[in-house]
Amino acid sequence: MHILSLFLKNFRNYDEEKIEFHPHVNILMGMNAQGKSNLLEAIHYLSIFSSFRNAKDREMIKWGQPYFFLEGKILRNNGEYLLSAGYHEENKKILKVNGSQRKKIKDVLGVFNSVLFSPEDLNIIKNGPSARRRYLDQEMIQLFPSYYYSLIQYQRILGQRNNLLKEIRGSKNKLELLPVWSQQLVNQGSMIIKKRFEVLQKLTPLARLTHRKITNGAEELDLDYHSLELKGEENLKTASLDKIKNIFFSQLDNNLVLENQRGITLFGPHRDDLKIMINGIDARKFASQGQQRTAALSLKIAELELVKSEIGEYPVLLLDDVMSELDQNRKNHLMQYIGNKVQTFITTTDFDFKQKEGNIIQISRGKIENKKN
Ligand SMILES: Nc1ncnc2c1ncn2[C@@H]1O[C@H](COP(=O)(O)OP(=O)(O)OP(=O)(O)O)[C@@H](O)[C@H]1O
Ligand SMILES: [Mg+2]
């Protein structure tokens, strides 16, 4: 799929711009702090309806303005879509597909898919489990809008269950209320766990293959989803939803005393981890910086392939400051891989950046100067 054009109004440092894009390569060129990453953030917003930089909607409104508005023209195998999203300080989010309003984010997810790769993606490997869960979730919500719904519900129930645990911490008072919350948590949480296992079953071979190619066969990448801290006693990988529910519920039930002491929910998909191994060794702890970077690249390319296999077309690829971070070998691999099959956006501060075809979009202080190659 492609994004053909984007209209921005009051988004970050953009005032009002309409930009037409090249179907293959778009180089966003400009000095530091001109609006390159902001433009990628705007494009990516139309995929996940939140910021990849974890910013709140309100923070993306141009300073001093009351709202922002984005509209992208999307070309997919089955036709064109006009996707609009905005945020007003007072009226909150506005979402539209082809001009007709949609109430919920889950109703607009999946219209436009994009995968973003930035130097911070090294954190997927380096940081704690939440970075890896976020990596999975950001991709999965674009592919499975009902997964987004489960995540939101789960967060809500988790918050309420945690409030109760905090309130009764250390006392037996109201402890009998907990299983009701546990059951609700288990119902939504088990769907999340099952879906993550399913996705990883598809993602893992894709990531392994990519990683083998980039490292010329020197490294084997492995992904392993660890759920509910079961440490291999129970194999959840191929378990049915009911089985996962049973196991999750008994995990909570067996640890009531512990949770009561700590005053917080200790088990569930919000605590799970995706272990990433290189040649059998935990990449988070032992891989070199370069190895970690390669693994992050493999995961991102695998993400592209996963989207392709799920929906039959490639998502749009957004590369923020990535080129300067990769060595020549990995850069070549990436460019070769992209070829003409994926519409790609590349930010660079390098005014000598050479590209055989595509658009160069010059950005200066939130203004676009569109120049054909
Ligand atoms: N809500 C906002 N309103 C107005 N300006 C903003 C807002 N949020 C961020 N900015 C400004 O946008 C500018 C450009 O940010 P951006 O991250 O896009 O830069 P960049 O071109 O990617 O630079 P770099 O090469 O350093 O990564 C920043 O200087 C920032 O102060
Ligand atoms: Mg930037």
TrEMBL record:
Q: Which CDD domains match?
A: ABC_RecF
A Pfam family annotated for this UniProt entry = SMC_N
Ordered alphabetically, the record's keywords are: ATP-binding, Cytoplasm, DNA damage, DNA repair, DNA replication, DNA-binding, Nucleotide-binding, SOS response
Q: What is its main location?
A: cytoplasm
Family note: Belongs to the RecF family.
Q: Which domain of life is it from?
A: Bacteria
* Name of the molecule in the record: DNA replication and repair protein RecF
Species whose genome carries this gene? Dehalobacterium formicoaceticum
Under the heading PANTHER family, the entry gives: DNA REPLICATION AND REPAIR PROTEIN RECF
- Which segments constitute the WH2 domain? 160-180
Query: What is the protein's known function?
Result: The RecF protein is involved in DNA metabolism; it is required for DNA replication and normal SOS inducibility. RecF binds preferentially to single-stranded, linear DNA. It also seems to bind ATP.
> Does the record carry DNA repair as a key word?
yes
What NCBIfam families does the entry give? Answer: recf
Q: Which residues bind ATP?
A: G30, M31, N32, A33, Q34, G35, K36, S37
The compartments listed are: Cytoplasm
